[in-house]
Amino acid sequence: MVIRTVKAASELTPDFEIIVVDDGSADGTAEIADELAHTYPQVRAVHHPTNRDYGAALRTGFHSATKELIFYTDGDAQYDPTELAVLWEKMTPEVDLVNGYKISRADPLHRIIIGRIYHHIVKTLFGLKVRDVDCDFRLMRRRIFERINLEKTSGIICLEMMKKITDARFRIVEVPVHHYHRAFGKSQFFNFRRLFKTGRDLLALWYALVIRREHMRPGVKPLVQTAADPANRIYPTQRP
């Protein structure tokens, strides 16, 4: 996945970096990420000492990014990095975010049903018009994170992010992207064991963003101004 992303990015621009966020993985991910960073000068690995969940990994990645455009996707290869070119083409000066949406979701039937119900509920509750709130294949301008903050550590961070971006009136365009079956591993988001917690988090987020509109109040510190966690290990610490 990382090697394909290096190739895809290099075909678009010579000025890029790739940040691999290791969220406290218990397998060989940390070693592989460091080896990739050692092999490819554009790659940097950031390691959480313990698992902090999906939202925390995204926040670390966004905070670590240094370029004017930020693209992110999951590391499980359910999206094709070469389709970054489709997003790149749509990132005109008038656009702040190019949001992918899944042409067809390649997941088990129960996840497809849960996902459709979830999207209908959140689009109604939060007043969102994007076709796919949770398609983790997005190209964004850095200035987004110079105005908004992200607080959630779970997978609900995607909803938090899209609501805050929409309310800040950033300009969004959408493009279709392919979604593939997961070759290895098992998703931890929206399985039946976590439905109750997801529902509870969803209601708390709705109250904070729709009723209280806390993110629209003055004095909110944007993500780029928050401090990085000193417990994170970064490899390499400096490039020669």
Could you please describe the fold and organization of this structure?
With 240 residues, the protein is of the alpha/beta class. The protein has 7 helices and 7 strands. Helix 2 links the parallel strand 1 and strand 2. The model has no long low-confidence stretch (mean pLDDT 92).
Percent strand equals 5-15%
Terminal residue distance: 25 Å
Global structural class = alpha/beta
- The count of helical stretches stands at 7
What general outline do the C-alpha atoms trace? Answer: globular
Fraction of helical residues: 25-40%
Average pLDDT score: 92
Question: What is the string of helix and strand elements?
Answer: HEHEHEHEHEHEHE
* Low-confidence segments: none
Question: What's the arrangement of strands in the largest beta sheet?
Answer: 3-5-4-6
